[in-house]
Write a structure and sequence with these properties.
The complex is a heterodimer of chains A (415) and B (404).
Chain A: H1 3-6, H2 10-26, H3 28-31, H4 51-65, E1 77-78, H5 83-86, E2 99-106, E3 109-111, E4 120-121, E5 124-125, E6 140-144, H6 152-157, H7 160-166, E7 182-184, E8 203-205, H8 216-228, H9 259-270, H10 283-294, E9 305-306, E10 319-320, E11 328-330, E12 348-350, H11 379-384, H12 391-399, H13 402-413
Antiparallel strand pairs in A: 1-5, 2-3, 2-4, 2-6, 7-8, 9-10, 11-12
Helix pairs in contact in A: 4-9, 8-9, 10-13
Chain B: H1 2-15, H2 23-29, E1 55-70, E2 73-91, E3 96-105, E4 110-123, E5 126-134, H3 156-161, E6 167-179, E7 182-191, E8 226-235, E9 239-249, E10 254-255, E11 258-259, E12 265-277, E13 280-291, E14 304-321, E15 324-339, E16 355-366, E17 371-383, E18 391-403
Antiparallel strand pairs in B: 1-2, 1-18, 2-3, 3-4, 4-5, 5-6, 6-7, 7-8, 8-9, 9-12, 10-11, 12-13, 13-14, 14-15, 15-16, 16-17, 17-18
The chains are: A alpha+beta (415), B mainly beta (404).
Chain lengths: 415, 404
């Protein structure tokens, strides 16, 4: 039997097939890319979800990633075409998808200029429409970078009483920090819970840079409407550009998504894990953490709070480390954009949760943009921009040795 | 639609001759590798067309198994009947021919009439063509039958940058000229063209595939035809190089005669080649797109795109097995890259990413020229718009494709 006639034997061919198939099946895991470490990514679910909750999380995940086309109802004016445009990998936004908001101060009252398309600028438009521009007369214009969306369920589960206990509006302890809650007029669809503490019909806001949203439903439904121009059962009418003189939306029947779509996304956001620490046991990180507390940063960026009761096991009465008090603080002239929402003053900002801070760059193209408008590209610059109630902490930071400063920065990067 | 098509097919099947009855003759019709013959004549270089008998029917089928994983997450195994295409050819007279192709994709999930063209040959240098035709852009679009290729997947540039299969209703002419060992060909057509979905689509990026529409075959949406054309030069013993163009106004700039937008155009320019050197087939193409995107949508929706691939096909063994006297085992490699959005962010000056680089390697076994069994391993490096951590996607594919 010569070499070539060997191949005439069907049995040889069959053996070759078996070898190829076996190699194919057994080598799959060897040649396939592995998942990045859980601590190195922001996305992922909270622990102990039931299969039904997992299923709902997956539905919300799909909707969160969905890109809206013009034919789906995108616009007519909009900022982004998908949730993930602004929150890539569930992380922070990028200057490409800034939210620009504007308004006018009139006799001490802030006018969001709704008749001229305010307070949010939709600077992109579908065919046949022109995008908005900042109207003449706006006295306050701010650019807001989308925050990371991880751990939001934990923040929502913090009870109003906990937030109020952290407030110190009259600076009774004389530490120079006087956090106040943001009170917001709720939208029609808001359903109060026993843990809410209303004040004259307003409720404590905790989401958004100015704490302008009370809960994740309000935040999400508003984002569908204002950011993507997608109508839902919660906001039934399209945003349009009054500057165009065409007071109509797109030609897609409203609502463009149903309430369950929005609620699935809310559930997805609610069940995203809290960002995990990295290098937490590093001695220099630990020293930096002590310095963080010593110079007073923890007065606003409160390291540990407890959540209240929740039907989701992981969120129920959990001890969390978000590094926020969810209160408004005056950050001084440096960060005063002359724009505001709810009861916040123009220089007041809600304390940004610092968890996930060290992973900011992973969603921002490899280099980080810090503060509400991304003006700081290093943590050092971000600290230096803190004024107002944080001015005293900033001065103490400046007084630290270079080594101590680096340790504090290392601690922040470990969050 | 299935209710109409299936009985029709039954009638056709039961009354026409079947190509597979002439199985030996097909080997002369289709080469073992995909490059033989000009791209222009690819539609007629199919094994079911065995003579100029009045009418014949044939087609090809393709089935695959896929196992992919992306950053450690896999959906597991998936089997698919990717394509089942039926060709109908008719030689109406010595100078008039009709060729049609009905495609069932992913089972019967998508059914489309991919080709239905009528050719009237005045001279080899001038044949008039009309109907649903394959736009002569790049090399793959006109020569896209699965059994011709050694890889399960089509090259990324041919699906993501050039919207293969790009069938168009149009009219025009083609021809060929012979100079010794050289054949020069040309194609020139006017067609209805792609539509508004090129931007503001469900992909969230400029994506020419999304500009296709079933209505393309019914009427133009803006009354301005696209132009598409190609010139190619083939050396009988070496290979072919082609330069092609496709472009026109893609948006609905007027409605009921009223101008509602400015005209926005897109252009695709492509170079494709194939050559056989020392028995090794090298083939590939490069395409560049230029799209007029409204100012406010720039950066989210790319204005420039490009992509390219090269395949190297090495026949490593020719042997006899079972009753096949000329079976071939090929070792294959493909390198490819596409960039959906070429440019920089005005806000940061950073590069806009949104690109994919890929490599595929595999083996293919051809018991006869018209049947191929393929096993591939693919690895993709995927960058999002901002250039965040590269997503890695890889997987195995095994498939079979055959003409019939």
């Amino acid at each position: 039997m010569n070499f070539y006639s060997l191949f005439r034997a069907p049995s040889i061919l069959a053996i070759l097939c078996v070898i190829v198939t076996t190699s194919f099946v057994t080598s799959c895991d060897t040649f396939l890319p592995s998942a990045p470490s859980d601590a190195d990514v922001l996305s992922g679910t909270v622990n102990d979800l039931t299969p039904e909750q997992q299923a709902n999380h997956a539905k919300g995940d799909t909707e969160f990633a969905r890109v809206f086309a013009q034919a789906d109802g995108l616009g007519p004016v909009f900022v982004a075409a998908a949730c993930e445009n602004c929150h890539i990998g569930d992380g922070k936004g990028h200057p490409l998808t800034f939210l620009t908001r504007f308004g006018r101060m009139e006799n001490g009252t802030f006018n969001p200029m709704r008749e001229q398309g305010g307070p949010q600028l939709q600077h992109r438009a579908i065919a046949g429409y022109i995008p908005e521009t900042i109207p003449v007369g706006a006295t306050g214009v701010t650019k807001l970078m989308a925050p990371s969306v991880t751990g939001l369920g934990f923040l929502e589960a913090v009870e109003d009483a906990t937030i109020l206990a952290l407030a110190d509006p009259d600076d009774a302890n004389s530490d120079g920090i006087s956090g106040v809650p943001s009170y917001i007029q709720p939208p029609d669809f808001f359903q109060p819970l026993p843990a809410h503490h209303p004040l004259n019909g307003s409720y404590i806001g905790r989401f958004g840079r100015k704490a302008g949203a009370i809960d994740l439903l309000q935040q999400t439904a508003t984002a569908y409407h204002e950011d993507m121009g997608i109508t839902s059962d919660f906001f039934m009418h399209d945003v349009f550009n009054p500057q165009q003189g065409v007071f109509t939306g797109d030609n897609v029947p409203d609502p463009e998504v149903g309430s369950s779509v929005v609620r699935n996304v809310v559930f997805y956001l609610r069940t995203l894990k809290a960002p995990q620490r990295r290098n937490a046991d590093d001695p220099s990180v630990k020293t930096g953490e002590q310095a963080f507390a010593k110079i007073g940063c923890a007065g606003c960026h409160v390291p540990t709070v407890k959540t209240g009761k929740s039907e989701i096991a992981a969120l129920n009465e959990a001890t969390i480390h978000p590094y926020t008090d969810l209160l408004l603080h005056d950050m001084g002239a440096e960060l005063d954009d002359k724009y505001t929402e709810g009861s916040a003053k123009t220089a007041e900002w809600r304390t940004t949760p610092l968890w996930g801070l060290g992973l900011s760059a992973t969603a921002q193209g490899g280099r980080a943009f810090y503060l509400h408008d991304g003006r700081a590209t290093t943590l050092l610059d971000a600290i230096k921009a803190h004024g107002g109630e944080a001015a005293r902490s900033r001065e103490r930071f400046n007084a630290l040795s270079e080594t101590e400063k680096q340790q504090l920065i290392k601690f922040l990067e470990s969050l | 639609m299935k209710h109409v098509i299936l009985p029709m097919l039954f009638v056709v099947f039961t009354h026409l001759s079947f190509a597979q009855e002439k199985k030996d003759s097909t080997q002369q019709q289709i080469p073992k590798q995909s490059s033989n013959g000009t791209a222009q004549e690819a539609v007629y270089r199919r094994p079911f067309i065995t003579s100029f008998a009045n009418t014949s029917i044939g087609g090809y089928a393709e089935a695959n198994t896929n196992y992919f994983s992306e950053n450690g997450i896999s959906e597991g195994f998936s089997m698919e009947m990717r394509r089942f295409n039926i060709f109908l050819y008719s030689s109406i007279s010595s100078r008039v021919k009709l060729l049609a192709e009905l495609e069932f994709e992913h089972g019967a999930e998508e059914i489309s009439l991919e080709t239905a063209q009528i050719d009237f040959e005045i001279d080899p240098a001038l044949t008039l063509r009309g109907g649903i035709l394959l736009a002569p852009i790049g090399g793959y679009n006109q020569r896209h039958d699965s059994p011709l290729y050694e890889f399960v997947e089509r090259p990324l540039v041919t699906t993501q940058i050039i919207p293969t299969t790009l069938s168009e209703i149009g009219f025009g002419a083609f021809g060929r000229f012979f100079f010794g060992d050289f054949i020069a060909t040309y194609d020139a057509y006017i067609v209805n063209g792609l539509r508004d979905g090129v931007i503001l689509n469900g992909e969230g990026r400029t994506f020419l595939q999304a500009g296709k529409s079933k209505e393309m075959f019914g009427e133009s949406h803006n009354g301005v035809p696209f132009l598409t054309g190609k010139v190619a030069l083939r050396h009988r013993k070496i290979g072919e190089i082609g330069v092609s163009y496709y472009g026109g106004v893609y948006n609905s700039f007027r409605k009921d005669g009223i101008v509602v937008d400015k005209k926005r155009s897109l252009q695709i320019a492509a170079v494709d080649f194939n050559a056989t050197l020392a028995g090794v087939l090298i083939q590939g193409e490069v395409a560049m797109n230029s799209i007029d995107v409204p100012e406010s949508l720039g950066e989210l929706y790319g204005r420039k795109q490009w992509g390219g691939y090269v395949d190297i096909i090495v026949p490593v063994l020719r042997f006899a097995v079972l009753e096949y006297e000329n079976a071939v085992l090929n070792a294959n490699i493909r390198l490819e890259r596409i960039d959906y959005n070429v440019g920089t962010f005005s806000s940061t000056g950073d590069n806009v990413f949104d690109d994919v680089t890929a490599i595929a390697a595999g083996v293919s076994f051809r018991p006869t020229a018209q049947t191929v069994v393929r096993a591939n391993y693919r690895y993709h490096w995927i960058n999002d718009l901002l250039g965040n951590a590269t997503v890695r996607r890889a997987g195995f594919q095994v498939g079979i494709a055959t003409y019939f």
